[in-house]
Design brief:
113 residues; mainly alpha; 2 domains
Protein backbone atom coordinates (compact mmCIF):
# COMPACT_ATOMS: atom_id res chain seq x y z
CA UNK A 1 0.00 0.00 0.00
CA UNK A 2 1.53 3.32 -0.99
CA UNK A 3 1.45 6.40 1.18
CA UNK A 4 -1.01 8.20 -1.11
CA UNK A 5 -3.65 5.53 -0.52
CA UNK A 6 -3.44 5.59 3.29
CA UNK A 7 -6.39 7.58 4.64
CA UNK A 8 -5.73 10.33 7.16
CA UNK A 9 -6.90 10.11 10.76
CA UNK A 10 -9.57 12.70 9.93
CA UNK A 11 -10.82 10.59 7.04
CA UNK A 12 -10.98 7.46 9.21
CA UNK A 13 -12.82 9.39 11.93
CA UNK A 14 -15.44 10.46 9.38
CA UNK A 15 -15.59 7.07 7.63
CA UNK A 16 -14.60 4.28 10.08
CA UNK A 17 -15.19 1.65 7.40
CA UNK A 18 -11.92 2.78 5.76
CA UNK A 19 -9.98 1.15 8.59
CA UNK A 20 -11.41 -2.25 7.71
CA UNK A 21 -9.64 -2.14 4.36
CA UNK A 22 -6.15 -1.48 5.79
CA UNK A 23 -3.49 -4.09 6.52
CA UNK A 24 -2.38 -4.64 10.12
CA UNK A 25 1.02 -2.83 9.82
CA UNK A 26 -0.71 0.27 8.46
CA UNK A 27 -3.31 0.14 11.24
CA UNK A 28 -0.54 -0.10 13.86
CA UNK A 29 1.21 2.93 12.34
CA UNK A 30 -2.03 4.92 12.36
CA UNK A 31 -2.67 3.94 15.99
CA UNK A 32 0.81 5.07 17.04
CA UNK A 33 0.31 8.40 15.26
CA UNK A 34 -3.12 8.82 16.84
CA UNK A 35 -1.60 8.22 20.30
CA UNK A 36 1.13 10.77 19.60
CA UNK A 37 -1.48 13.36 18.67
CA UNK A 38 -3.53 12.50 21.76
CA UNK A 39 -0.47 12.88 24.01
CA UNK A 40 0.52 16.22 22.51
CA UNK A 41 -3.06 17.52 22.85
CA UNK A 42 -3.22 16.36 26.47
CA UNK A 43 0.06 18.09 27.32
CA UNK A 44 -1.16 21.27 25.64
CA UNK A 45 -4.42 21.16 27.60
CA UNK A 46 -2.66 20.57 30.91
CA UNK A 47 -0.36 23.51 30.24
CA UNK A 48 -3.26 25.89 29.71
CA UNK A 49 -4.88 27.08 32.91
CA UNK A 50 -8.63 27.02 32.83
CA UNK A 51 -9.99 30.52 32.41
CA UNK A 52 -11.92 31.83 35.37
CA UNK A 53 -15.68 32.03 34.92
CA UNK A 54 -16.89 35.35 33.50
CA UNK A 55 -17.86 38.06 35.92
CA UNK A 56 -21.64 38.59 35.93
CA UNK A 57 -22.75 42.13 35.21
CA UNK A 58 -24.19 42.47 38.72
CA UNK A 59 -20.89 41.44 40.36
CA UNK A 60 -18.66 44.06 41.92
CA UNK A 61 -14.89 43.97 41.72
CA UNK A 62 -13.09 44.55 44.99
CA UNK A 63 -9.61 45.79 45.75
CA UNK A 64 -7.32 43.51 47.72
CA UNK A 65 -7.99 45.61 50.82
CA UNK A 66 -11.79 45.27 50.48
CA UNK A 67 -11.62 41.54 49.69
CA UNK A 68 -9.21 40.83 52.54
CA UNK A 69 -11.50 42.63 54.98
CA UNK A 70 -14.45 40.41 53.97
CA UNK A 71 -12.32 37.27 54.32
CA UNK A 72 -10.78 38.29 57.63
CA UNK A 73 -7.27 38.39 56.17
CA UNK A 74 -4.59 40.97 55.75
CA UNK A 75 -4.33 42.34 52.20
CA UNK A 76 -0.77 41.03 52.03
CA UNK A 77 -1.87 37.48 52.89
CA UNK A 78 -4.56 37.63 50.19
CA UNK A 79 -2.13 38.98 47.58
CA UNK A 80 0.47 36.33 48.39
CA UNK A 81 -2.14 33.58 48.21
CA UNK A 82 -3.96 34.77 45.09
CA UNK A 83 -2.43 32.00 42.95
CA UNK A 84 -3.51 29.22 45.34
CA UNK A 85 -6.89 27.78 46.30
CA UNK A 86 -9.26 29.05 47.52
CA UNK A 87 -8.15 32.64 46.87
CA UNK A 88 -7.32 32.15 43.17
CA UNK A 89 -11.03 31.47 42.55
CA UNK A 90 -11.84 35.03 43.62
CA UNK A 91 -9.37 36.73 41.27
CA UNK A 92 -10.72 38.47 38.17
CA UNK A 93 -8.25 39.27 35.41
CA UNK A 94 -8.67 42.90 34.42
CA UNK A 95 -5.50 43.36 32.39
CA UNK A 96 -3.97 45.65 35.01
CA UNK A 97 -1.24 45.03 37.55
CA UNK A 98 -3.64 45.39 40.46
CA UNK A 99 -5.67 42.22 40.95
CA UNK A 100 -9.39 42.56 41.54
CA UNK A 101 -11.58 40.11 43.43
CA UNK A 102 -15.17 39.08 42.75
CA UNK A 103 -17.60 40.03 45.50
CA UNK A 104 -20.04 37.29 44.40
CA UNK A 105 -17.39 34.57 44.46
CA UNK A 106 -16.22 35.65 47.93
CA UNK A 107 -19.78 35.70 49.26
CA UNK A 108 -20.42 32.22 47.80
CA UNK A 109 -17.23 30.93 49.43
CA UNK A 110 -18.20 32.39 52.82
CA UNK A 111 -21.67 30.84 52.62
CA UNK A 112 -20.39 27.40 51.54
CA UNK A 113 -17.42 27.30 53.93
Amino acid sequence: MNVASIPTLDQIAEHPELAMQLPAPTLRLLMVNALKVQSVCMIALIGQPEPPPPVPAEDRLLSSKEAAELLGLSPLTLLRGRTRAPYRDFVVQTGTRSPRFSLQRIRRYIIEA
